[in-house]
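Technical note accompanying the year-one report. For the benefit of new consortium partners, we illustrate the data format agreed upon in the data management plan: each record pairs a sequence with a structure-token string. No post-processing was applied to the example shown here.
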Amino acid sequence: MLEILVEEEEERESGEMGPCMEYLLQHKILETMYTLSTADCPPGMKQQVLMFFTKLLGRIQQPILPHINVYRPVQKLVRLCGLVQAAPTENEEMQFLCTVCAKVKQDPYLVNFFLENKDSHKDSALNNSLSPCAPGGEMKRNTEVPSAGTMADAPGEREPDQSHGSTASSVRCANDLAYHEYSSNGLYLGVRATCRRECNLVHSLLTLISSPDGRIAVKACEGLMLLVSLPDATAAQNLAGNTALCEMLTQRLTTLHHALPTSLDPLDIESLQPVNWGLDGYNQKEDTAAFPGKRTLISFLSWLDYCDQLIKEAHEVTASALAVAIRRWFFVQVLEPQLLQMSEEGILVSTALLARIVRQVESQSLLGQLVVFLLGKRRLHPEEPGEPPQPILRQRLIERCDHISDEVSIMTLKTFETLLQKPHPDILWNLVLQNLQERNYMEYKPPTQEDAEIAENGQIAGAVDLEEDPLFGDVLSGNQFLSSDWLYPSPQLSPEHGKDGKTEVHKVVNSFLCIVPDEAKSSYQVEGTGYDTYLRDAHKQPYNVNLQITSVLSKLALFPHPHLHEFVLDPYVNMASGCRSLFSVIVRVVGDLMVRIQRIPEFNSRLLMVRRRLVGLDPDTSLIDHLTLLEGVIVLEEFCKELAAVAFVKHHAESTL
């Protein structure tokens, strides 16, 4: 039959329908084939029908799918796909659905033939239209009056309905899927659906996504991604509002999350290799780095990645709806209670998983909803002391940066560090900029005549010259950093430099380079060591809290916003009473440090030993007294060098614009 139809089409002019095709359509041959496939009689008929439909739609070039005697049986056959998990016809079902998706891709308007309302009770009975939830799952015209037997067998009560007059009533069907509506004079008005029977193309694809056959599951995912990427706005609205797409995708995400063991190690969550949804070919027997729960963790992250990629490819209407659904039904209802629990072990696992989720999300819609979930909506005014925190999760995460448990503090700081690297403007605004916009951290002093003369000489009014600062008076002379080659490319300061209120870059750089006295420095004694070296190495050891704090601050210092730059990187800003700058805090830390190192015998040799050990140059594992303090000294030195480098690079970036 197929060969005859194909040959007939090839022999005729383009677009002209032949007698064989007319016969197929007029005599509802496809409807008959569908009926045979539902009973699979004779055995194997369903498989043959699926193959025929697939080849017919794939090989016939004429636009036959919009014909009522084609799309109706195709609709019904779509509903048969995925009804039985791991069915013997699963491969044919998937090929058929892929062919339908390809047709829809060619003509996006066709998608509306396969999207059926899940809440069609909102619409009145439509004459000459199809009800997706008629009794027995069959599509029936609303003009079809049910038999007396159907009415007698239908449990339920007549319910008043105002849509057809005050005396109109309806009787609930036996399967609780529809109402049979009647007017006050007994005239049958048709079947009106009240259910959420998702018997459509989207539902079939979502069902086959759960197939134990990985190839079938991936094909179903690809078909669904093709549907959501259609440019038709009406189709996108139907996908978002009239299918179970959002609910089922989110429900699967929730189910996979519930399957995660509570005994997961946070370090295993953090160190797991990147996961891609289409390449989830994990084999536990071949995995030399397996850990309990790895299979379920990969499954969860794979599905999260799929949802993220689906949102990235989807029409903006569908993408927004799915992202909101994930925030409401997964982030808020599932993830938030885990993050707000009191168990330290539970906090560690949930925060590690949150950091992993933040790292993995890439689509702008889902990232935006994640930011709203964690930080709340964008505020226009600074935070006021004593006001209720909104949301509470944001406040709780900020408080945990200084938790009694170092592990909780580190994991929370890692989450913020990851968050700061995401490309969303509300992140930095919510965490920092909203409280810096009015520059209340500065103490304003009216300029004097002396200040004007200082500004003319290329300095900033009110600044303290570094050479006159008693803290640095002893360390400036002969300091090795002042003669470093990398400082020389700095452009010559123009006579006007400094009048714009910015501190000269050489003053900023030297302030941070010289803040740690020479007797507490050790970097010049070990080659190839830098701040990034310690950051990389820290992932292999129990992570130091100080190092994580400085890592977050370095990320903040890199942002080009002028207020943030001023607050973090300008040592000469006149701070208002009660305000602390990063530089002032470091000065206090160094002052305390210089007192404490006087009590450590052989401080310099021990400091060098610890530095070599941190970067893997010394295999000695013997215990060293005051280890935490010595590591802190090294981190502080490298951090100050990092801040100096950031200030220098940002200055050059601005000068080249």
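Partners are asked to follow this layout when depositing records. DSSP finds 27 helices and six strands in the chain.
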